[in-house]
Design brief:
- Two copies of one chain form a homodimer.
- Chain A is an alpha/beta fold.
- The first copy, chain A, has two domains: 121 residues, Rossmann fold (3-Layer(aba) Sandwich), CATH 3.40.50; 147 residues, Cytidine Deaminase, domain 2 (3-Layer(aba) Sandwich), CATH 3.40.140.
- Helices cover 34% and strands 21% of the residues of chain A.
- In chain A, the strands form three sheets. The first copy, chain A, has a six-stranded mixed beta sheet with strand order 6-13-11-9-7-8. A five-stranded parallel beta sheet of chain A has the order 3-2-1-4-5.
- In chain A, strand 7 and strand 8 form a beta hairpin.
- In chain A, helix 7 runs parallel beside helix 8 and helix 8 packs parallel to helix 9.
- Chain A is globular.
- Chains A, B: It comes from Akkermansia muciniphila.
- Chains A, B: Pfam families: LpxI_C (PF06230), LpxI_N (PF17930).
- Chains A, B: This is DUF1009 domain-containing protein.
């Protein structure tokens, strides 16, 4: 009796995250066959030669990628890396995606991804947690790089994490920029780097804090918030001097390079533990 | 026995709002003596000749404006018009303002204004509602100008109002831009027009909705959200085709000009009633 080698399906969005998944998977299970779905203009070309099979689709297609994965014997799927929200807004859905969209009352990034996962499960796929093979890249609570935060910075970090968490409760975004106890910028769909640029400008070049969290009640099959050297570089250019990440729920890519950049630009980077459910809901908050 | 003419103190921020207060007050009480505090680079110069006494101070001064108002016999004060949040961030507080700031855990625009009001009341001033003399400029529920919203637009308007209200609950801002059920931009301290510009761009030029509300549990002594021709013009340039205001709690300046602009640019402008705690009921839909 022969056993076929296990097969992993990968839905590969932008950035380095899909590449990390593939490398982590190869390290742990060398015989793994990786079948990847990519998106034109989104998927990092570096991931392509690392997969056994790779095919590109348009954002908004559901039927064709499902068929492609099935044809290649995929049962387990990881979804990794984001899709530029601008492309989500201008997507051209196929019939199946259209029928999903029609049933959705709110069309934010979270609900879109959730709907895609539901459809994939109806097709018989199992969606694995997005941190599979990524555990070593998810910082635990504590200081990561750069100078230790001052007490004032620490206050802004805790405040920023709480505010960012409330923003995820509204399904809007996952980052805020804080400056001396004031939220100066909220990320909606413009992306973290654009939010950093705005928050830095609005802070009049004075040091500010980026707080980035996972969604409240985050479904770990979803794309996980990620930062890497580009985030640090953008922060350095825009007067952000502190980055607070949610411990155990955000991914830090290229840690060595990140540590160098934080040291060079005197950016304090640390991970905070945030209790998941016991924060007051917006309706509990005194006006 | 002689009766001195009544005196009104006016703390005049930016825009047309202080001018409207003065004109409304003069119409209702011609003998009123108006003593105004202004801010360099903020207060519209048009208001100056309309006041009996006017003096400019720096943002962040408290002691001197208080003395000035007292010396001029002021008991009742209206605070009208905003201060550019960038100037709030870079304010140079006098000793009294500094002691207020030190006691504040969160320094957002709401809490700053609240603290200023508390200090003013300690000094014996009475802060009148910011809508005093402005009632005629606060739209009641219904259609105001431009085309009637489509059912899809109406859904975005209701959703946007709810989301903007939640954002005020977090003391962040009062406006959001919505595009087909997605919040594409949240206003923090960049100001409504900058938020409109970002939301318009992110919507890829497709028609979007601006929803603007008063704070949840809004203290009516605070500056009231205001729109006027500049807002409409900015919306027209940025692909916003619908503006939803909170009925009875937002101020519409230069209504004639606003109506012309909405007609010209096919922008649907209407006011929605939003119950403080629940979403708007379907019956609020403008007929």
């Amino acid at each position: 009796m022969t056993t076929d080698p296990p097969v992993l399906g990968l839905v590969a969005g932008d950035g380095l995250y899909p590449e990390y998944i593939v490398r982590g998977a190869r390290r742990r299970t060398p015989e793994l066959r990786i079948v990847a779905v990519g998106f034109k203009g989104e998927t990092n070309p570096a991931v392509i030669p690392l997969c056994d099979v790779y095919k590109e689709f348009s954002v908004g297609q559901l039927s064709k990628p499902f068929s492609f994965l099935k044809k290649n014997g995929v049962q387990n799927v990881i979804m990794a890396g984001g899709i530029n929200p601008k492309n989500i807004l201008s997507l051209r859905p196929d019939l199946r995606a259209l029928s999903v969209l029609m049933r959705m009352p709110e069309k934010n990034a979270d609900s879109l991804l959730g709907a895609v996962i539901t459809e994939a499960e109806k097709e018989g796929f199992t969606i694995l947690p997005a941190f599979t093979y990524m555990e070593e890249h998810m910082p635990q609570p504590g200081h990561i790089a750069g100078p230790r935060p001052t007490p004032e910075q620490w206050e802004d970090a805790v405040f920023g994490m709480q505010m960012a968490k409330e923003i995820t409760r509204l399904h809007i975004g996952q980052s805020v920029i804080v400056h001396h106890g004031t939220v100066v910028a909220v990320e909606a769909i413009e992306g973290t780097n654009n939010c950093i640029r705005r928050g830095g400008e609005l802070g009049n070049g004075k040091p500010a804090t980026l707080a980035k969290v996972a969604r409240l009640g985050h479904d770990m099959r979803f794309d996980i918030p990620t930062i890497g050297p580009v985030t640090i570089q953008t922060c350095a250019e825009c007067g952000i001097r502190q980055i607070a990440l949610e411990a155990g729920k955000t991914i830090l890519l290229e840690r060595d390079r990140v540590e160098q950049l934080c040291k060079k630009h005197k950016i304090s980077l640390h991970a905070l533990q945030l209790p998941e459910q016991d924060g007051p809901s917006p309706s509990d908050r005194p006006a």
